[in-house]
Amino acid sequence: MKKSKENSGKKMFAYDGNFYTYTGKIFDLLVVSVYWLLGCIPVVTIGASFSALYAAVTKSVRYDRDTISSQFWKAYKQNLIPSIPLTLIYGGVIFIMLLNIGILDAKTDSLWGLFFIVLYALTILFFIISACYVFPALSRFAMPAGWFVKLSFYMTVRHLPISILLFAMFAVSYLALLNQPAFFLIIPGAVTWVASSMIEPLLDRHMPKEGDKEKNEGGTE
């Protein structure tokens, strides 16, 4: 029995054992969180950074395909140009809705004003949730921007329970980051790891038909 425990301990701390495997993955999540933060700095590249974060975590951390650095920067460069229209669309709509809410809140206290405030808030909520799908889809598929928007809208409604769960998870993460900025070192990568396990099966179901190109070596096989 004692010998069995010793062998088990040696196996755990072997180079390919559980200890090094999991500590390596945690380190990768820390590294990719920093990469994501750096990638977001130019603002207009936020979409590319989210897409690269998703691709790197899914392929390198979850499926052990290549290094985290290689996967992130490869996806970042590949999705940089295609992501800009999507970033402008989603960011622009959310900004306009927030602006309208601010104007209505300052200028009116009528029921009509309240109605439009609620309507704009729901629009923001819908776009935030659909963004949880659009940038992961961008990391997988090569399609026109309009098709990514349509796909994200459809997935938001079609998979509503998962959509709500994703929003709740990202909302809690956002509040945690506001409360403790040091969490930026782990939360982006860790949350993406969890989100990937929910989103990847859905993306496989909505894979573009033959004739549309799938990027990055066909997803997660």
UniProtKB/TrEMBL annotation:
What species is given as this protein's source? Candidatus Blautia faecigallinarum
Transmembrane residue ranges:
34-58, 79-99, 111-138, 159-177, 183-203
* Stated name of the protein: DUF624 domain-containing protein
Check the record and name the Pfam families matching this protein. DUF624
- Answer yes or no on keyword Isomerase: no
This protein's UniProt keywords: Membrane, Transmembrane, Transmembrane helix
Enumerate the InterPro entries for this protein.
DUF624 (IPR006938)
List the coiled-coil residues. Answer: none
Q: Does the keyword Transmembrane helix apply?
A: yes
